[in-house]
Amino acid sequence: xxxxxxxxxxxxxxxxxxxxxxxxxxxxxxxxxxxxxxxxxxxxxxxxxxxxxxxxxxxxxxxxxxxxxxxxxxxxxxxxxxxxxxxxxxxxxxxxxxxxxxxxxxxxxxxxxxxxxxxxxxxxxxxxxxxxxxxxxxxxxxxxxxxxxxxxxxxxxxxxxxx
Length: 163
Description:
Blueprint lengths: L1 E4 L3 E4 L5 E3 L12 E5 L10 E6 L6 E5 L14 H4 L11 E7 L8 E2 L5 E4 L4 E4 L11 E2 H22 L1
Antiparallel strand pairs: 1-2, 3-4, 4-5, 5-6, 6-7, 7-8, 7-9, 8-11, 9-10
């Protein structure tokens, strides 16, 4: 299927890559068909993808795995909300956070309160409100990435010292 996209132009998208959000997503309830896209030409590690509407070419949301930002992320969600995803094991679900990227990228935030949860096996998704009171709507991405990089460098140095 040919799909018009905001950042990638016209792409040939395999039908099995279409994700159905039966209730739409917050603020865009009328759009049900989406695809997860990423820039394959980007060099290096690219943790940001695009949740692209297949019904509106200009509607694409940058998303990231919460595990790129924090070690643990376990949104508390009512089981009934996840029933629309079909049968799944918790570890099989894909969880993504919407990013807000202002002109100053150091002020980029991720919405930890309203994750997208996708079942790749059924190609169904839902956006939910996590009941966790400590999950912010505007989690500071730049600070988290810097902390993870620093922890990674420290861990690498400790491994080298042990050798």
